[in-house]
Each structure stands twice: as structure tokens, then as C-alpha cells.
């Protein structure tokens, strides 16, 4: 499949710069995510995500632990952003999301990181936890494209993304990779203080699928466009997993690829909650994965 970065057309027309300016306007008061915390981030205030105006990057470089469709033989070029608009109590990257370890970077430095990932030969630019720094990403993409950046962009998100913010990414993002956690309001309220997560993520999934269409790979099997949904099977939550999979199989305007994941382990504050303080039983995971296949979902390799 011949692939060409659509954001380069947006850059040529000047629309990419316009999108960056519109996104930046959402920062103060902040209305980037469904929390609408209205922190004046340009003035240094920190909202729920814990990040002010400058993005904070924890690490970058080729990642070979992602899905094979992203990794290929040269790795997925991950840029890990610190902070998060969810704050899950079982987060496996809590040192980055909760403790916000990393270094502040401005647009030019972030653009240089994007170009560095491309120079390393990675198959794509994988933006990890990008929701709360989407304006900073767009602002950095402008000078990066000007200097020759052309990789597919992966938006690796927790799924708590409002459609109005996602609209600014239409034609920019090539691959959406949301981590869809649960459609149970009680679970979302208890463990990441977001009772509206089920409603928000359903809307987000529909908008993402509308933008990028069916999941597509090149002749080597490396992802180029589409929706790749991650779902981590949690202990004692089989019904949650079934609801998520049913939605993915029936309600989207395009065909996703799905990674049903079994690597849950108790982290961060999980030990405070008996229902979270143990690994997901293997038989539970296998039942969920079998159900995904029964629904006709295409699973990640």
C-alpha cells in the first residue's frame, strides 16, 4: 500500500499551523480533556494532569515491546509524555503519569525529538499519553515537517479524549491506539475519578474510526493507518471486557484491530484494593480472548 503523510498537505496549506493555534487556545483556561479543569496552564498553573504549558518528556527512542504491527523490524519510535488526564490507581507507568518524571521541552526541542526518532529508522512516531499535551505536539509538528519529518503518527492514548479535541487531529494522526479500559461507571469512578469515561470513550472511538478508517498495513505487515484498540483484561471484570469487545465489533464505522492484553499486574496503589491486588487469572483472559474471536474481531499478532 502506498502511503503518504496527510499532515504534510495540511502543512503546505497552512492549516497545520492554524490547528496548532486553535489547540493552544484550549490551554488557558484548559479545556483539552473532558475534565475541563480550566487551569491557566500558560501562566504556569497545573490541572489534573499535573503539566503546565511546556510538555514534559520522560523518554524517547525505538520500542520493541509494542504490537508487532507497530514494531516491524526497526521499532516503534516512542515519545513518552509525563502526566496524564486519567490518573489510574493501578497505573503501570506511575513514575511518569503520577510522579511526572522527565524534562520540560519547548516546541523546537520537541520537534528535534520527532526528527531524532525518524533518524533512528523507526517505522512510526508513537506519542504515548498525548491528550494533555496535544497543542504542544501540534506546535512542534510544524517545524518538524518543515525540516523533513514524514513518519506515520501513532496517537497512543488512554481514550479519555473529547471529540472536539480529536477534530483538530483529523488528517494529522494516521493510527489511533486507545487503551479502552472499561464501560462500567462504578469502576471508572473508583479507580480513575472519571465516571463519564464510558460515554466519552465511546464517542472518541467512533470519531477516531471515522477519521482513519479500516486498519491497514503495508506489504511488510507494518501498520500505516487505522484504529488499533488495546484492552487490558482486569481481574474480576470479565463482564466489563465483554461489553468493550461487543462495542468494538458492532458500533464502529470502520474495522479496528484489537489487542486483548493479559499483562495486568498490581502496581502503584493496587495493593489498597483487594479486587485489584492480584494478577488476572489465565482462564479469565483466555475466555475474553476467545469471545473476541467469536465476535469476529481481528486480533493483533
Describe the overall structure.
The protein has 301 residues and is of the alpha/beta class. The chain has a single domain, classed as TIM Barrel. 35% of the residues lie in helices and 17% in strands. The protein is built from eleven helices and ten strands. Strands 1, 2, 3, 4, 5, 6, 7, 8, 9 and 10 form a ten-stranded mixed sheet that branches. The model has no long low-confidence stretch (mean pLDDT 96).
SSE layout:
Blueprint: H1 7-13, H2 15-24, E1 55-63, H3 68-71, E2 76-81, H4 94-97, E3 103-105, H5 107-119, E4 125-128, H6 134-146, E5 153-157, H7 163-167, E6 175-178, H8 185-192, H9 197-212, E7 216-217, E8 223-232, H10 238-250, E9 257-261, H11 282-294, E10 298-299
Parallel strand pairs: 2-4, 4-5, 5-6, 6-8, 8-9, 9-10
Antiparallel strand pairs: 1-2, 1-3, 7-8
Helix pairs in contact: 2-6, 5-6, 10-11
Amino acid at each position: 500500500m502506498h502511503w503518504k503523510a496527510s499532515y504534510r498537505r495540511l502543512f503546505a496549506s497552512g492549516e497545520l499551523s492554524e490547528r496548532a493555534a486553535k489547540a493552544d487556545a484550549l490551554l488557558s483556561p484548559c479545556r483539552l480533556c473532558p475534565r475541563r479543569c480550566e487551569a491557566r496552564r500558560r501562566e504556569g498553573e497545573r490541572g489534573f494532569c499535573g503539566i503546565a504549558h511546556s510538555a514534559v518528556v520522560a523518554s524517547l527512542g525505538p520500542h520493541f515491546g509494542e504490537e508487532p504491527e507497530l514494531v516491524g523490524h526497526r521499532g516503534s519510535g516512542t515519545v513518552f509524555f509525563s502526566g496524564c488526564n486519567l490518573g489510574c490507581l493501578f497505573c503501570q507507568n506511575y513514575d511518569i503519569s503520577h510522579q511526572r518524571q522527565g524534562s520540560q521541552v519547548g516546541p523546537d526541542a520537541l520537534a528535534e525529538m520527532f526528527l531524532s526518532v525518524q533518524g533512528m529508522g523507526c517505522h512510526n512516531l508513537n506519542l504515548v499519553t498525548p491528550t494533555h499535551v496535544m497543542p504542544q505536539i501540534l506546535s512542534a509538528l510544524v517545524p518538524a515537517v518543515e525540516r523533513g519529518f514524514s513518519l506515520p503518527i501513532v496517537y497512543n492514548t488512554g481514550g479519555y479524549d473529547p471529540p472536539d479535541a480529536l477534530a483538530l487531529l483529523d488528517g494529522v494522526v494516521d493510527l489511533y491506539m486507545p487503551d479502552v479500559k472499561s464501560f462500567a461507571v462504578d469502576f471508572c469512578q473508583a479507580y480513575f475519578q472519571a465516571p463519564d469515561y464510558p460515554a466519552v470513550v465511546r464517542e472518541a472511538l467512533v470519531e477516531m474510526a471515522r477519521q482513519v478508517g479500516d486498519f491497514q498495513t503495508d506489504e511488510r505487515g507494518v501498520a500505516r493507518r487505522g484504529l488499533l484498540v488495546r484492552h487490558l483484561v482486569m481481574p474480576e471484570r470479565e463482564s466489563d471486557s465483554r461489553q468493550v469487545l461487543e462495542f468494538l465489533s458492532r458500533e464502529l464505522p470502520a474495522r479496528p484491530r484489537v489487542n486483548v492484553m493479559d499483562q495486568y499486574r498490581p502496581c502503584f496503589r493496587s495493593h489498597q484494593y483487594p479486587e485489584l491486588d492480584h494478577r488476572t487469572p489465565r482462564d479469565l483472559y483466555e475466555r475474553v480472548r476467545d469471545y473476541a474471536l467469536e465476535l469476529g474481531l481481528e486480533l493483533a499478532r
